[in-house]
Write a structure and sequence with these properties.
single chain; two-stranded parallel sheet; disordered N terminus; 23 helices; 2% strand; 4 strands
């Protein structure tokens, strides 16, 4: 049946938003298929049925929505921002269905696990993963893989139904610098990005399977490594595997924390890495994090192997929620370093969360420029990124985003501690601060009672809802969600 096409000026905003939700549900529903195959291979017929129902519901409702509302000729920016936010909430809701159908998850826990998956936050409410069906573990890993590169980017790549509004959708899902195009039409760029993403995932699965992981474990960890998600198939996370597997994951996290468009350009000319200032700052942040942890544990005679310090620093900065050791028992100063590293993130255009390297660098450089201006009032202080001057409006936008980000973190922390206290959970300040920071930065494990040796199962239901909202705010970089609550958006 041919899709009806309406002029974008004649199509009401709710219809445009419904159309975006429809294409995202179809893409997300089709992605359930690999988990169904895994469930069938392991003869987990009940799990396969649950996953199959999810696929049918998502594709059916999404496809029907597309047909009913019709494709708008183009999408306006405000439609794209609101549509992306609502589409993410919708796909998270459908992603929770397999958990709910097991009967082992409450509605809150199922939504929390699904939110942590799609936002690539390695937080979980599952205390013992050994009893979870392989098909469900594969779906759990797949949700992080979808969220890593972005389900909107996937929709544009495999479902050519967006028309002229595709770039607006990508801007909404990957807020920050202007999306770097590799081709004149963004659909071509989306195809190349996902092509590299798939190739890197396959290579990662092969490398991991050559070690002590089974083929299934290699596939699952490949999905959650290139997405910097951090869901593991073992309750002990990467600590349950060999040093070889851990070093492979370290390399994958470093690669996934860099811009994927930069990787594609560097395939033709490796010197592109050296010419990109943000890449140099990214590597500098990783090296600094590693040095701080290694130096800190060495001074306190903790006796932590070098590999564990390197792994913890890189996993924290890139927002990959894997762990290899219980860093919650490290000296308090190291906990402070880990908390600060949660806010950094990788490059723009990567699969990482948090503030991102370019924002951190611009804030630091603009602060240095301001200090120079105060000490030498007659001099002209310019904020530079590499050798290029940064326009004042870009510096202002970065400052505004950082303020809003930290405000959301602060409000989230207060609400989390308040509701935990009201529900009798008595969460301490370290746990509340680190949990909120980990959620909005899409990391996963935190400190205190939700540290690397624990889960979020004991957090009260209101706390889980607050943390889930922080995860979504962090993944969508706040503004698309805020837009939904502004009165001016809904006015004609």
């Amino acid at each position: 049946m041919p899709l009806r096409t309406r002029s974008w000026t004649a199509t009401p905003t709710p219809r445009r938003i419904a159309y975006i939700v429809g294409i995202v549900l179809v893409a997300g529903g089709l992605a359930v298929a690999p988990a169904i195959v895994v469930a069938a291979i392991y003869r987990e017929w009940e799990t396969a049925l649950h996953l199959g129902l999810t696929l049918v519901l998502a594709v059916g409702i999404g496809g029907l929505t597309i047909v009913v509302v019709g494709r708008p000729e183009r999408l306006r920016p405000k439609d794209a921002f609101a549509g992306v936010a609502i589409a993410w909430v919708a796909v998270i809701a459908f992603g929770s269905v397999p958990y709910l159908l097991t009967g082992s998850f409450s509605t809150t826990d199922a939504l929390f696990e699904s939110t942590a998956g799609f936002t690539t936050t390695g937080a979980t409410v599952i205390a013992d993963l050994s009893g979870v069906a392989k098909g469900l573990l594969m779906w759990r890993a797949t949700t992080q893989w979808l969220g890593g590169m972005g389900i909107i980017v996937l929709s544009i790549a495999v479902l050519p139904l967006v028309g002229a509004g595709g770039l607006h959708l990508v801007r909404a899902e990957t807020a920050g610098p202007e999306p770097d195009r590799l081709t004149p039409r963004f659909r071509g760029t989306a195809l190349r990005l996902w092509g590299l993403y798939v190739a890197l995932t396959v290579a990662a699965a092969v490398l991991l399977a050559l070690g002590d992981m089974t083929v299934f474990e290699g596939m699952a960890h490949a999905l959650t490594s290139v997405s910097t998600g951090g869901f593991s198939t073992e309750s002990g996370s990467l600590g349950a595997f060999s040093a070889y597997s851990q070093w492979v994951i370290i390399a994958l996290m470093i690669v996934a924390g860099a811009s994927f468009t930069l990787h594609i350009r560097a395939l033709r000319d490796p010197s592109e890495y050296l010419r990109k200032p943000e890449f140099r700052y990214y590597l500098m942040s990783l090296l600094t994090g590693v040095a701080l942890l290694m130096g800190g544990v060495a001074l306190d005679n903790v006796g932590v192997p070098v590999r564990e310090s390197v792994f913890t620093a890189i996993a924290t900065i890139t927002g990959t929620g894997y762990t290899v050791t219980n860093y919650g028992v490290w000296p308090a100063a190291m906990g402070g370093v880990i908390l600060m590293m949660m806010f950094i993130g990788g490059m723009g255009g990567s699969t990482t969360g948090a503030l991102k390297t370019y924002r951190v660098a611009i804030v630091l450089k603009s602060a240095a420029a301001e200090v120079r201006r105060l000490t030498r009032p007659r001099s002209v202080s310019i904020t530079r990124f590499g050798r290029a001057p940064v326009p004042a409006e870009v510096v202002s936008a970065v400052h505004s985003y950082v303020v809003v980000y930290m405000l959301a973190f602060g409000i989230g922390t207060v609400l989390l501690l308040y509701f935990e206290s009201a529900w009798g959970a008595n969460m301490d300040l370290v746990t509340g601060l680190s949990a909120a920071a980990s959620a909005i930065s899409n990391v996963g494990p935190a400190l205190g009672t939700v540290g690397p040796a624990s889960t979020y199962a004991e957090v009260a239901a209101p706390g889980k809802w607050i943390l889930g909202m922080l995860m979504i705010l962090g993944r969508l970089e706040i503004y698309p969600v805020i837009l939904l609550f502004t009165a001016s958006f809904w006015r004609r």
